[in-house]
Amino acid sequence: MSKDIRIKKGLDIKLVGEAEKATENAIVSNFYSIRPEDFHSIIPKLVAKEGARVKAGETLFYNKDNEAMKFVSPVSGEVTEVQRGPRRRIDAIKITADKEQAHVDHGKFDLSSDAEKVKAHLLASGCWAFIKQRPYDVVANSDKSPKAIFVSGYASAPLAADLDYTLAGKEAELQAAVTALSKLTDGGVHVSVGSYNSPLAKLDNTTTYNVSGPHPSGNVGTLINKVSPVNKGEVVWTVNAQDLVIIGELLLTGKFNAERIVALAGSSVKKPRYFKTLIGAEVSTMVYDNGVEQNGNDRIISGNVLTGKHVQPDGFLDYYSNVITVIPEGDDYEFFGWNKPVFNKISTSRALTFSWLSPKKKYDLNTNTNGEHRAFVTTGTYEEVFPLDIYPMQILKACMYQDLDEMEALGMYEVAPEDFALTEFVCVSKQPHQKIIREGLDLMLKEIG
Amino acid sequence: MGLKQNLHNFRQKNKDKKWLPAFSAIHTFLFLPNETTHNGTHIKVADDLKRTMNTVIMAMIPCLIFGMFNAGYQHHLAFGEITQATGGFFSSEFWTLDNFSVGFWKVIPLVIVSYVVGLAIEILFAIKNSHEVEEGYLVTGMLVPLIVPIDTPLWMLAVAVAFGVVIGKEVFGGTGMNILNPALTIRAFLFFAYPTWMSGDKVWVHGAVEQDQLIAAGQNVDAISGETILGSLAQNKEAGYEIMDMFYGLIPGSVGETSTLLILLGGLFLIFTKIGSWRIMLSSVIGALVMGLIFNGVVSSGWITESSKFYGLMSTEFWHHLLIGGFAFGTVFMATDPVTASQTNKGKWIYGFLVGFISIMIRVFNPAYPEGVMLAILLMNVFAPTIDHYVVQGNVKKRMKRVKAKVA
């Protein structure tokens, strides 16, 4: 069964440095790092202390609120360092990889098992971390059953990894994963695809939606909003398409294989292409060889330019990303930059900005904010790039003045920070929309739960 | 390289100083800052608030220049030094250096006073609240000289600007937080505090008030009358101007409000650049036309007679209302202020319509002062949050209904 979803509001940000469809093996990383901050709101209880030896798929820590929920090591090796921040918060768990990799064997999973068994298996094997929930955009609470599960198989974000390419040949794993997931909900698994050639388009036990239109047509939040928006008291789960492969492989073979095909993209990359690597790998294993100038003034982002995390060259690929983007830093002044005509930057207005003249042109943008932070002034600009049936500015303001009732009424249960990436990009007042939404969600999680 | 580096070093050296926002205002005027994104989106759109505000100013510049010529033209015409321009918009009697220099020396001081006083207050508040100087006043400062009579004394303007910026804006928290349009707050202050300088038949033409004072002092000179079209109509007199002159703007009035043609071009520019809201402009015009039609209907069905004091304005053809007075200027440049207008798209339609509708209503019924745009916009500024509230409630209700459908 398939349906079409076409959105009109949005913005395709076309950037230089799209990854060429060629995959190389990344240099094997010696160090891997798992950062609990990737699992927002989870308080980790450390299992593997410094000096412990772990196999790939062995528990590093579990969720303090739910002991069954394990978070596992992507490689086998030795836990060499547990970095701690203020109040002994665990910042990162660093693992030095073995030359010979050994995996924990969870055994082949019987796909005809019932929901409880599926749940227990995913929790114990570390695959639960890939299942996130809305409201709040956090790792899913395994005690609640979701009204539906959503997967986006179409990446519309700028310089995103092409899922049709990275998932090709993984149909068996994808099928196993959605079969198992479909047991966890009565509402079915809903998958969006960009074309019917997608490996996700022909899966059983799913409802397929062919999405088209500008970004954020591929965001899972857009899919949820168009199919079945989250109401108060309801929960939906989301899984990234590339993580279905890991779940599927675990079910089929019993191994937690943290392998992931990652796009290295961005205008600072000399030869943008795809790499086969593991979750938690050091980004320097990919970005330098034929990639980025060693001493260049560049920003390395684990994730895409709209929602990713700024990482240092010795930083690590985060748990949910399948893109590393490298773009130039913009830490320079520009003479009369605020009033001279602009041809080399993207704009949604035409205020002496001329990107409307060449809609197909690819731009080389840097990290300059192009202006200073201001109060909200202009209106109507966010709505043009925001396809959800929600008033973006009003909900942002409700978050800022922390009015829980209003946040709830305006649709806070439906949103995740990434839904506000485009409004943040076009914001003339340079307000940090995603941060505002994240803090609003955290507040609701704490007060309402 | 030199200037850029020097300013950067100066900024680094004085990072903690309280007066830094004052320096920043100048620094960021010269250079787009070197600020980079942190987490969140790593790239940003090219526009910032300065560019947005600058675009609005660009749209007003033709009105400003025309206003200078017109000030001189009206002055010379009233004193009988030149004859009525007959060649339309490009009339050679109008675009003379003589006209320009009279207007230039009257208008530029208004602009300077408006900016100096307003920005000084903005900078003081920025330092006091330690935030950057926000750009809102760039537009307000240009609007103010365009919406006052040419002979407004400078000290009055200074007092009004100080009042408008402090009470109209800063007490609410500065740019983006104000409820009333600051430029109109300034004008409203002038209007209620110094009514003799803001209405009547003397203030619209440079020199008319002086002439009156000379007469009062016993000198034998001719009194000058510079009645606006609305003033004449309110007294049931003939408008006395050709339609095209009204459209081109060769009529007495506030400095920048007269030329509907140039305001229209400015409005189209704002719509094209996506800075001004076409929804507000269009719905406001519709609102004004509807009200005008209602009044025309009242006259043609004979409910009021020529003896009524409202007859002159009510019987004015409905679409003439768009050309006379400050309606066009208010609609294009003041009703569209994003901070004080409705912020939702649906709300903008309602807000704009009511601005137009009420403008013409007040214009016709206001006994003392035949113009309603200022008061209509200020009134709707107050109601804009309410309009938005009900529009947003529509969305909230939809959400509630969804929950109910689930439960049922």
UniProtKB/TrEMBL annotation, chain A:
Biological function: NQR complex catalyzes the reduction of ubiquinone-1 to ubiquinol by two successive reactions, coupled with the transport of Na(+) ions from the cytoplasm to the periplasm. NqrA to NqrE are probably involved in the second step, the conversion of ubisemiquinone to ubiquinol.
Annotated catalysed reactions: a ubiquinone + n Na(+)(in) + NADH + H(+) = a ubiquinol + n Na(+)(out) + NAD(+)
Top-level taxon: Bacteria
Oligomeric and partner information: Composed of six subunits; NqrA, NqrB, NqrC, NqrD, NqrE and NqrF.
NqrA N-terminal barrel-sandwich hybrid domain boundaries: 5-98
Entry's EC annotation: 7.2.1.1
Ribonucleoprotein keyword on record: no
NqrA second alpha/beta domain ranges (all copies): 114-256
First-tier enzyme category under EC: translocase
Na(+)-translocating NADH-quinone reductase subunit A C-terminal domain boundaries: 261-311
Signal peptide: none
InterPro entries, sorted: NqrA, NQRA_2nd, NqrA_C_domain, NQRA_N
NAD as UniProt keyword: yes
Gene: nqrA
Annotated keywords: Ion transport, NAD, Sodium, Sodium transport, Translocase, Transport, Ubiquinone
Protein name: Na(+)-translocating NADH-quinone reductase subunit A
Family membership: Belongs to the NqrA family.
UniProtKB/TrEMBL annotation, chain B:
Keyword NAD: yes
EC numbers, comma separated: 7.2.1.1
One Pfam family, short name: NQR2_RnfD_RnfE
Swiss-Prot/TrEMBL cofactor(s): FMN
Catalytic activity: a ubiquinone + n Na(+)(in) + NADH + H(+) = a ubiquinol + n Na(+)(out) + NAD(+)
UniProt entry keywords in alphabetical sequence: Cell inner membrane, Cell membrane, Flavoprotein, FMN, Ion transport, Membrane, NAD, Phosphoprotein, Sodium, Sodium transport, Translocase, Transmembrane, Transmembrane helix, Transport, Ubiquinone
Protein name: Na(+)-translocating NADH-quinone reductase subunit B
UniProt gene name: nqrB
